[in-house]
Amino acid sequence: MHKLLLKGGRVIDPKAGEMFTADILIVEGKVAAIGPALEAGEGAVMDVTGKLVAPGLIDMHVHFREPGFEAKETIASGSRAAARGGFTAVVCMPNTDPVADNRAVISCIKARAQETGLVKVYPVGAITRGIRGEELTEMADLKEAGAVALSDDGRPVASAAVMRRAMQYARMVGLPIISHCEEPALSAGGVMHEGYMSTVLGLPGIPAAAEEIMVARDIILSEYTGCPLHIAHVSTAGSVRLIREAKARGVPVTAEVAPHHFTLTHRAVANYDTSTKVNPPLRTEDDVAALKEALADGTIDVIATDHAPHTLEEKDVEYQLAPFGLVGLETALGLVWTELVIPGVLSPVEAIRKLTVNPARILGLPEGVLKVGGDADITIIDPELVEVVDPATFASKGRNTPFAGRRLQGLPVATIVKGQVVYNRNLAVIW
Amino acid sequence: MMNWKRKDLLGLKDLSAEEIKLILDTAVPMKEILGRRIKKVPTLRGRTVVTLFYEPSTRTRTSFELAAKYLSADSVNISTSASSVVKGESLKDTARTLAAMGADVVILRHPMAGAPVLLARTIRAAVINAGDGTHEHPTQALLDMFTVREKKGELAGLTVAIIGDILHSRVARSNIWGFTKMGARVRVCGPATMMPPEIEVTGAQVCLSIEEALTGADVVMMLRIQLERQQQGLFPSIREYARLFGLNRERLSLARPDALVMHPGPMNRGVEISPEVADGVNSVINEQVTNGVAVRMALLYLLSGGGMPDA
């Protein structure tokens, strides 16, 4: 019988909002007991004294590029990056080639994830065929095949009529819509936030209004149709205000923010570094402050990376020619700790909640909690560990990070999926 | 006298007033060379200057080419169509090829902002930005400043009005940085749809009407309006543009009597500038072209490692 005892850690229960010292006994991939002074018997013991023991982190927004763009990332390399970043489950966006707009592609993604066998991979199905924003996908079939949500992420659903029908149908099927909010007529040609930095750099801008108009539209449609709506990668203060007001009114809307959006501003673009080119773009100091406030007051439910790997050749070009996106899995937890927990924006329990129970609740996943009888998906965090980000050490194929050389404190040191240690940085395991 | 220390000239935003002054001072003896019967000095013999143009341009490219030839450098022109920016050899690979062939100075014109920054990071050769997207066109601004300084003696205290499509103008951006660093006041004026957001952070003052911008100005700089901007919905018609933002004799009378009228060319006569103003006594448009060669000679000289020339 496979047994593993995690000894002496500070266990975080994000659902109850508690943190307490306890051991966790894992038997056959399940949590068998949580309590003081447990014995491993003939099993292995991992000493986690001084570490935080959290439910396995869930990243509800990644691009693993398979099938179709395997030079950027594969399900295998992306899974290794997830494990190294402390994530035990990821949710993959459907903008692959072919697009995950049918049962076959969803099944293919699940099969490849099974073969890799590192972290749990949940696919998102497309809202429209080919993410072209025109015809609805077979949403019921997608759900049956294993899709946990619907999104045309990477592209907005430009037509309000299509989005309205999509929400009506998705609600019937029982899947949430994840919306990439961008009014394409306002963002067309833009490569960075429209503001004084775009003026100085002479780069075409994407105004905050391009995001906010779509956030407003989709909130109105969610309220009208009753369809649960999750706003992906919120980046502006105006979007935050709209979401806060909608939540107060009882609209079934939730929202996520990416670490780069609460850490960096458009000033980071100053030297035309293409690793700062991301959609939505890096915004202003006021937007960053509003995002932090929204994290603290619960307006923003989830922290998700929008992990978007690209090859070196694709990014090593003129700023306007480079594709949008940056990798986030292997810097996310360090940024959450350094930018949010240590400065006191979020408590450790609140931060973990936005990386576990909240995404699980939105997507209807059983993960995100530590409970006896549940899968032993666990992330061990060393809140004191400091590291300088070096992209050369990434497990992801993507090296496109704007955080190279940045000092981060609070890092994952071990990742356990169904009782298997899929990543172990430095913890001793005694048999 | 300070020495030139930079490898490249990518823009005026990061230059100091001293550096700008050094360039302008160096251009004075260069202009003197241009006035000689035999316009050639051996200063850059054995040096290779490459102009790499990803956008069509006659005057800027010719100006650089003549500047190189008058200084006895070998010059090569490479003109590439804009389509090859997207497909084919990347800018970095082209640059590495040129560097491997021994180019000492690469002059780049490119439709995308920041391309010269990428180039300068890639190769050891000196890079001169000859216009990148809507970012900067530093040599144009330097020749404008040289022209104004020659006429007015000093730049500090002058009021410069820049009129037109500021949003898409790299000339405007470089001139704002350059003139404000030298102590001049810069006003910008144009259709609200063609005013970049938060342009005030550059130090420029936004004027809502051309009359406000022109009143008391020492220098009036008119920008070329690209006619395709009308199709993009940025202004309703050429007729209305000319009515609101065109410079004619009557409007020019609001400026100081000795105001200089400038235009980076090529002009749309009868649209942004009336023919009688373009060819009038206040116009220094042709002198701008001559001074462009002198300023570019100065830059080639400085970037090739010279102090003040003894020409």
Describe this structure in words.
The complex is a heterodimer of chains A (431) and B (311). With 431 residues, chain A is an alpha/beta fold. Chain A has 14 helices and 19 strands. In chain A, strands 1, 2, 3, 4, 5, 16, 17, 18 and 19 form a nine-stranded mixed sheet that branches. The two termini of chain A are 13 Å apart. In chain B, strands 7-6-5-8-9 form a five-stranded parallel sheet. Helix content of chain B is 40%, strand content 14%. Chain B is an alpha/beta fold and 311 residues long. Chain B has helices at 17-34, 59-70, 83-86, 91-100, 115-122, 138-152, 170-181, 210-214, 228-231, 238-245, 249-252, 275-278, 285-303, and strands at 48-53, 74-79, 105-110, 126-132, 159-163, 185-189, 205-207, 219-222, 260-262. Chain B contains 13 helices and nine strands. The model of chain B is unreliable at 307-311 (pLDDT under 50). The interface between A and B is medium-sized, with 21 and 26 residues.
What is the compact description of this entry?
The complex is a heterodimer of chains A (431) and B (311). In chain A, 30% of the residues lie in helices and 23% in strands. Chain A is of the alpha/beta class and 431 residues long.
Q: Label the structural class of chain B.
A: alpha/beta
Largest interface: A-B, 21 and 26 residues
Question: Over all CA atoms, what is the radius of gyration of chain A?
Answer: 21 Å
* Rg measurement of chain B, Å: 19 Å
Structural class of chain A: alpha/beta
Following the backbone from N to C, one meets helices and strands of chain B in this order, namely: HEHEHHEHEHEHEEHEHHHEHH
